[in-house]
Amino acid sequence: MSKVLLVAGLTGLLMTGSAISAPHIFKDKKKHKKETSRAVTPPQDRAGQWADSVFQSLTPEERIAQLIMIRAHSNLGQDHINAVIKDIQDNKVGGLIFFQGGPVRQANLTNYYQSISKVPLLVAIDGEWGLGMRLDSVISLPRNMMIGAVQDSTLAYDAGKIMGEQCKRLGIHLDFAPDMDVNNNPANPVINDRSFGENKYTVARMGVATIRGMQDAGVMACAKHFPGHGDTNVDSHLDLPTINKTRAQLDSLELYPFREAIAAGVGSIMIAHLYIPAIDKKPNTPTSISYNAVTKLLKNELGYKGLIVTDALEMKGIAKFYTKGQESLQSLLAGNDLMILPSTAAGSVEAIRKAIKAGKIDQDEVNARVKKVLRAKYNLGLWKPQHIDTNNLAADLNAGTDSLRRRIAEAAITLVRNDKKLVPFSPAMTQQKLAVIAVGADASNTFQQAVKAYKPGTDVFVFTARQPIEHIAAIVSRIQRDYQAAIISLHDYSRRPANNFGLSLAERLIVRQLQSEMPTVTVAFGNPYALQYFCDASTLVAAYEDDSTTQQVAADLLFGKLGASGKLPVTVCPGLPSGTGITYQVNQFTSLPETTPKDAGMDEQTLAKIDGYANEMIARGAAPGAQVLALKNGKIVYDRCFGHYEYNKAIPVSPQSIYDLASVTKICATTLAVMRLYDEGRLNLDATLGVYLPSVLGTDKAGLRIRDILLHQAGLVAFIPFYKETLYPDGAPDTILYHKIPDPSHTVRVADNMYMENTYRDSIWKKILDSKLSPHQGYVYSDCDFIFLGKIVEQLTGKKLNEYVKETFYAPMGLATTGFLPRERFSLSEIVPTEHEYTFRMQQLRGDVHDPGAAMFGGVSGHAGLFSNAHDLGVIMQMLLNKGSFNGVQYIKPETIALFTAYNSNISRRGLGFDKPEKDNISRREPYPAKSASAATFGHTGYTGTCVWADPESGLVFIFLSNRVYPNGGANTKLSTLHIREKMLETLYEAAVKR
Fold it and tell me: How far apart are CA 574 and CA 585, in angstroms?
């Protein structure tokens, strides 16, 4: 069967089909011909052109069928396949929803089904935790409840991105995820841990991040189950649940996440089968077929323009009232666009056709919805040929899932209670005889193996769900007699609350007895609601999942390798409400061992001079405080904190304090990324900017060499004050460009209560492209150089700069603080303020990047935006000093380190990205960075009062972090005029010589 001709050219991925309203369909053919000849579709509206062309090729019945999606499996037999083929060929259904099966089988079926369909099929899946929810051979991501325990929404975005990438690879255009129900009923039999939790703000924040991740991957997300399925005690698969709440209650809780999803541009919303009298009092009227719910509330009141999808029409919540196609008709009358899994596709088309004929629904309204669906198909890429390559399919689908599962587990695992301070295990406790009792497990698992790896000689007891109460006494007696402490791990219990989550009475009794009679740590590998049976336990850990990754992370937590950062997303006991969680960080720098100055061959008295310089700095107002760290041959020889965050001396500087690094970003983020891409052969230093950034083509920036950009000798201007053009004449920020609260068009945070209009970043980019280029290409230190380099990293990797360096360097190296956007990861008490800015942002800057340009890029830029403490920077610089290796992992090739850190210019002191000593350092009156620094030394300084230096010849690493710009900005140059940093670094050389 011939396919409809496809119009090439995609102007932009719009997730909904309603960006431009569907044209009116005239019943008078002559009038229609006349009107359409005048009202030519704008040439830029290719989605509309394609939708119109497809629409005109279809019969009235085929048009209706575009609104129908049917069930498809790849694990059922030929009879099922034949039924799907029949619906595609005879009934011309608009789409398929895949369920259980395997990826290659599904790909082959999808290819075939697409080949026989007159109109490209919209392919969907119900994959809330990725394709592993439905398909064998694909690794599942965690359930939403676990993600709800995470404090960093970027992990929800990453989960959504992987889900979207999986779908894209398998030819799936729509994933019915995420679940945005607020689960405020612990007995909910159907939502429960599919929800992000009971806090509406958490549900909205994590749900929106997931949506953005999915849709950034080019797949339509679907917020469900509108208007909220979280407070039910009936499964709508089996019956029609009732929610007896007032409209005000619904507005304040259930509807909140959906409002946020709509504001974020979610492509589709799924309507639940719920009876909610506050919305529609008509008996036996599920919200899915309620005009009040779908049209009046969702479309009219909330202003939603995207695709509206029913929940499965085969579910008893509606099927007990309507069947034989009537369920589809009622759904369409309510205002839905897509009717999924009706009892019959042919019957649905016929019921709708008869309703049109009888005048129950206007033909124009049906046509508009058909075109809305067709526009969505175009915007999802269905105008292009649909074919899935099965080569390496399973490997592609699983790429990145293991590392993300690990990151989520580390961030989610929750220390719920620690009354006796058992966690993390102290050295004294690890010397005691320890037992693990695995309740519900049937065999050895990763958790048991991991505990034994940390503490050889640990004994394991297994208590299965089948064992009777009579076995308890003997087991407890032996554990109490032979062991000083026990770890109780709960495994393989049900995710649903029915029958006590499947925990037998014997299982619950043995856990409670051990908890009450000896020191224990209880770890629940599964739904956290099950902790309700152990509210009196002194030490509780919620682990959320029962897979090998989570089990290893739990062991890491208990034995002190990992800190605790998760918080309960739901209330589990009266005294353990949502938000409960003891958090702390574990020192991740054990691989940077300490040593005494004597053992390092350095003079301790000479090193003490650094204290004097630091105290002088504070006393003379050069900076209110600082962190100073020095390493010799890979070991810490000096590690001190001085002063306070501010001159009021309210908060003292500690090793955990986090500083704005300013231009140190250039080497500890951007240059690291550039070196890695150079290593991989993805970046040629002698290629031009235009090779990597299409947006510079046609400008005088296209021909600039990457090598020259790294050396600051490409001729770019030093600095562009982007912010100045966004201020009123009196210096106040433009209230059109900046809003105090974020909204869909103002999401770029530049400071507290200051969100920039999204598209203004394009204006900034144009200012850079239009900036004057020096014809001489001499040495001019320029932020623009590294803005370009940051964009190259993002273009080549397909990831934001902050994501790429985190995944490639910071996370694998175990860096606890280094990264962009610190307010998303740390409390303000851990972040040192930089300046009280009296121009532009007019407020204290704390956790928002100091550099105005980087702030206007959203806090992430190649030239500024990185934050860290001194220890993490010490790890990075030691890795570079180790020729790219750290803890047995080679991050960058030695020859690349040598190339980039050497002198690379005959007109400046610069390396590639790195700053270096002046070439005539020995004879200079003011040597830089220190008189004794060898020619091999490399590093960088930062405007806020920071520096990092490493000297391969002496084996020294020097880290200095301060906020010298506090409180009044860069006018305070005392740190430089007093030569504090230079004196401290020179002292390190003196200490080594004297010894």
Answer: 27
User: What is the H or E stretch that residue 960 is in?
Assistant: strand 956-962
- Alpha-carbon span 26 to 364, nearest angstrom: 8
pLDDT for the residue 427? 59
CA atoms within 13 A on the CB side of 561: 13
Could you give the CA distance from residue 423 to residue 556 in angstroms, rounded to a whole number?
11
Residues 129, 187 contacting (CB under 8 angstroms): no
Name residue 783's amino acid. D
Q: Which two tokens stand for residue 134?
A: 């439905």
> Going by DSSP bridges, is the β-strand pair 946-951/843-845 parallel, antiparallel, or unpaired?
unpaired
Q: Answer yes or no: are the C-beta atoms of 793 and 670 closer than 8 Å.
A: yes
The gap between the terminal CA atoms of the chain, to the nearest Å, is: 87
Closest by alpha carbon to 890, among 793, 954, 964, 808?
A: 808
User: Which run of H or E residues covers position 437?
Assistant: strand 434-439
pLDDT in tens, 836-880: 999 899 999 999 999 999 999 999 999 999 999 999 999 999 999
Whole-angstrom CA distances from 325 to 270, 318, 319, 354, 649 are 19, 12, 10, 11, 73
Q: Does residue 581 contact residue 414 with C-beta atoms inside 8 Å?
A: yes
Residues 632 and 630: their CA atoms lie apart, in Å, by: 7
Which has the minimum average pLDDT: 101-115, 205-219, 590-604, 891-905?
A: 590-604
Angstrom CA distances, 68 to 63, 83, 310, 377, stand at 10, 15, 10, 14
Q: Give the Cα separation of 617 and 644 in Å (integer).
A: 12
Nearest to 864 by CA among 934, 946, 970, 976: 946
Query: In which band, very low, low, confident or very high, does the pLDDT at 272 lie, cut at 50, 70 and 90?
Result: very high
Task: Quickly list DSSP for 287-344.
Answer: GGG-HIIIIIIIIIIS---SEEEESPTTSHHHHTT--TTHHHHHHHHHT-SBEES-S-
- DSSP for 898-932, please give it: HHHHS---SSSS--SS-B---TTGGG-SS-SS-TT
Of 201, 206, 257, 207, nearest to 227 (Cα)? 257
- The single-letter code of the amino acid at 190 is V
**In the chain, what's the furthest Cα-to-Cα distance?**
101
CA distance linking residue 689 with residue 191, whole number of Å: 50
Q: Torsion angle, CA of 748/806/709/904, rounded to 10 degrees?
A: 160
pTM of the predicted protein model:
0.61
> Hunting for tokens 């395997």 — which residue is that?
102
**What residues contact residue 516 under an 8 Å CB cut-off, 6+ apart?**
536
Q: How many residues does the chain have?
A: 995
Q: How far apart are CA 580 and CA 558, in angstroms?
A: 18
| Segments in 126-193 forming alpha helices (H) | 144-148, 154-169
Phi, psi of 222 (to 5 degrees): -140, 110
Question: Quick one: angle between helices 783-797 and 760-770, nearest 10?
Answer: 120
Helix (H, G, I), strand (E, B) or coil at 101: strand
Beta pairing partners, 487: 436, 521
The b/e string for 791-812 (b: 16+ C-beta within 10 A; e otherwise) is: bbbbebbebbbbbbbbbbbbbe
Least Cα distance to 254 among 291, 224, 284 occurs for 224
Percent of the chain with pLDDT over 90: 85
**What CA–CA distance (Å, rounded) separates 476 from 479?**
5
Q: Which residue from 260, 232, 226 is spatially nearest to 244, judged by alpha carbons?
A: 232
User: Of 983, 942, 984, 987, nearest to 963 (Cα)?
Assistant: 942
The distance from CA 844 to its chain's CA centroid, rounded to whole angstroms, is 28
3-state secondary structure of 700: coil
